[in-house]
Design a protein that fits this description.
With 150 residues, the chain is an all-alpha fold. The chain is built from 7 helices and no strands.
Length: 150
Amino acid sequence: MNINTIVSEQYHGKSLRELVDAPLTALCGIGEKEAQAFQDAFNVSTIRQLAQLKFITHAVAIEMMASAEHPSSSETARETLLDEAVEMTFPASDPISVDSGITRIEVAPDKVEAARDHQNASAIAAHNEAACGQANVGSARTESTGSGTA
């Protein structure tokens, strides 16, 4: 880290030993008004005192330990649900949402045999025949007779 980027220009080139006992105004972004506020609120006037302020040390400790913390059980459960959902639906064109109430399908739905009924064509043909009142292409009657009309 280039110390000159975080200290005021008048403190450029100073050693760290000199900077630690410098006033708070030596830090970029802390002017007289802010330094006075620290003095009034916490009785802090130097960089060393600021660094040793218990609120600062506690905040730094929490921030450092947060990255090493294990995820909570709810975070782990969500991640597991997401992993399982993706695994069950792969390949899929739409992303999976953990919040959408994904449940595991234990029994696969009934499927028609693709060799006999591609994309459920016989059900579609039966529906079309019922709607039109006559045999249409793909219906059972036209398949057996070879004609497209009744």
